[in-house]
Amino acid sequence: MSGHSKWATIKHKKGAADAKRGKIFSKLAKEMTVVAKQGGGDPGNNPTLRTLIAKGKSVNMPNDNIERAIKKGTGELAADVLEEITYEGYAGGGVGLVVKVLTDNKNRAAAEVRNVFKKNNSDFATLGSVSRNFERKGTIMIPSQGVSEDQVMEVALGAGADDMVTEEGGYTVTCQPSSYSAVCEALEKAGIAFDQENSRVGLVPVALTAVNDIAIARSVNKFIAALEDLDDIQDVFTNMDVPDAISDALDAE
Angle at the Cα of 98 (from 79 to 208), degrees rounded to 5? Predict the structure, then answer.
């Protein structure tokens, strides 16, 4: 769910994430396998893999799982061929959804994703019709405790970040995907802690769709949760924007 504050969004997702730790491990493992296949299994020479390993450790992913995923990518262990697929569509209130899938069976994945769309009175949109309203960006979430806005800005912008927004609870740094690893490493070297689990390279909406009806916001969240519950789903991106009051009310449910 996307509200006025990305930090409110993180708070909303934390409980669900804690309840689905196994799925998080599985999704990270798939990503590590693909990244290791593309850029090699040495995190010292593969910054994207290094970032994923750090994210895995931040959610207490076992080292055995990490090593196995990397070895599958490098060919040291047998692995299924994984395909990356994107589906697009609309939820209630005209909210756009971009669904990223990583699967070893595209027919199964398509059927499962389509079934969730149909149960939520939607269907796939033409590829590009929704995603054209998003741009690929790195987003780094930094809690505000113990670090000032000026400190974060100096380090992040000096490492190649594009922008920084200060919100209640923390700072949101954005950058080009190619600069993501460099910005993360600069923050680490400066002793500035950031939220590994919720920082990533992904799709950021160029324009938001306002939802002021709690029933619609609830139905969109239910739609997204059903998609995220599928094993082949890696990410669901949305451009929904709700007022803080609605966000807080949904958190309380």
Answer: 150
